[in-house]
Amino acid sequence: MRVLLAIDGSAPSDRARDLVAGLPWPEGVEIRVVSALDAGPDLMGVPWMEVAPAADTTVEQAFVRQLTDALQTAVRDLDRADRRVDHVLLRGRPASAVVAEARTWNPDLIVVGHRGRGTLASMILGSTSAEIVDHAPCPVLVARGPMVRAALLAEDGSEGAKVAAELLARWPVFRDVPTTVLSVAEVAVPMSVGVAAGLYDRILTSYTESVDEARREFTAIATATAEQLTRAGLTATVDVRDGEAAAAIVEAAADHGVDLIVMGTRGHTGLARLILGGTARSVLIHAPCSVLIVREHGVTFADQPQGVGPDVGASR
Q: Which residues pair with 65 in a beta bridge?
């Protein structure tokens, strides 16, 4: 298995490093730690990444030293006898550089911090992290905490959710993580404005029947997935809720006290900010814990023979 960890020396990226250090990876896992230096003229910076003025080599050298120290610290923290760890300092736009490295090195998973350096970092999910999630060729784990003791799988019956469930069932790193399978019955509440009282009563009755039917449907979907996880050796329970999907997922994650939300999503292309769709992006922004995004069409570690992919080269 191969894991690409993107860091920048910030506190959120330190949590991502600690999460990778604490997970029970299979023997022989290869972990590549990367950071990227953008030497462009943008002095405002971007989340979790430093940007050096192109004409100031002194500043750039200082950033290089800072990032190199962070990389070397991460390698020391992650090094074990049963794994191989190396580090790479990339050049260019951080998101583009990390995604390009992923396409070249072919990892099974990318891990990033949920926020980092930059003036916008305190307001939104880091644009670099979000862009990596949008364009990554493999699952991306956006880390908010240093461990995974319990997980919540968002199950809506889609192909993306199916792939996410298969990942949980087949990756040994999640073998001992109890999982709540959550399905959300989304049925819009009918508006009463402008509707006659008697007619609205009939509409409300129809709405109630629709909610009941949706709950039965999504309970069956969640139960089937929980049974799949149980057959794979995981401990799985079912939770079915009504309402708007993203809000229900975030609320359920807090209620169950999980450390990880797992979501499938379609592999759309197009405008970067629209690729994931509203539900996944809203969960990424508001989740109280780490979030693992699994593409609908993506090759995972479970689909590959051990050792597939290019050999790990020396740090560069």
A: none
